[in-house]
Design goal:
The chain folds into two domains: 84 residues, Beta Barrel (Thrombin, subunit H); 115 residues, Methylamine Dehydrogenase, Chain H (7 Propeller), CATH 2.130.10. Helices cover 0% and strands 53% of the residues. It is built from no helices and 20 strands. The mean pLDDT is 94.
């Protein structure tokens, strides 16, 4: 261990680093704040956002950090140069998952209570569309080429696939009970989702948008997942 950094927040829900690694951002759910840690000096700056700061995403250029505010029904936008909130965007009810297109032109936000995804235009910082998906959307992942957004819905037990060009759901795939976290494999051909209430993981073939298989007995309550190098 190098050091402990006291951030002063409670229930830290997410952390991300700037593209150059100079700063780490921490979402504090209970305080409705984001802490910014200087990774060289470990000095901490606190940015007020809105109630229930939950998940973080950074723009492809690294100039903005987006924060879903689960209790505030909004998304805060932080300028990474000034470390100030430059916009607070109203979205749906109980926003959680968030993803940004590789081009940086749109931000996708899953609203758990609504069963919708709000699509934000990054230039105007306004919601330009709302797409209905499965009940309780938990996570949003966009493919590397930016053409598809996958939304795992924990209550519905489904994965909704949104065409980012038309902003419409083109496929709804039944996965399993408690479809929470998900990940795309390194070559971008398969989408994995954990089914926490079934102790399984579903594997979706991205080119055909079909469920290839469901892997059983991965352990009790599988939650998050990732791929090694």
């Amino acid at each position: 261990m190098i050091t402990n950094v006291l951030i002063g927040g409670h229930q830290a829900k997410d952390i991300l680093f700037t593209l150059d690694g100079r700063f780490a951002y921490v979402a504090n759910y209970n305080q409705g704040t984001v802490n910014v840690i200087n990774t060289a000096t470990y000095q901490v700056q606190t940015i007020p956002t809105a109630a229930g700061s939950r998940r973080l995403a950074i723009s492809p250029t690294g100039d903005r950090v987006f924060v879903t505010n689960f209790l505030g029904n909004s998304v805060s936008v932080i300028d990474t140069q000034t470390q100030q909130v430059i916009a607070t965007i109203p979205v749906g009810v109980k926003p959680r998952g968030i993803a940004i297109t590789p081009s940086g032109d749109a931000i996708y936000v899953g609203n758990m209570r609504d069963g919708t995804v709000s699509i934000i235009d990054s230039s105007t910082l306004t919601v330009i569309d709302t797409v209905t998906v499965g009940s309780a959307p938990w996570q949003v992942i966009i493919t590397e080429d930016g053409t598809l957004a996958f939304v795992s819905s924990s209550v519905a037990g489904t994965v909704s696939v949104i065409d980012t060009a038309t902003r419409e759901v083109i496929k709804t795939l039944v996965t399993g009970d408690g479809s929470f976290f998900s990940a795309i494999n390194p070559d971008g051909t398969k989408f994995y989702v954990s089914n926490s209430n079934e102790t399984t993981v579903s594997v979706i073939d991205i080119p055909s948008l079909t469920v290839l298989r469901t892997i059983p007995d991965v352990g009790d309550y599988p939650f998050d997942l990732t791929f090694g190098p």
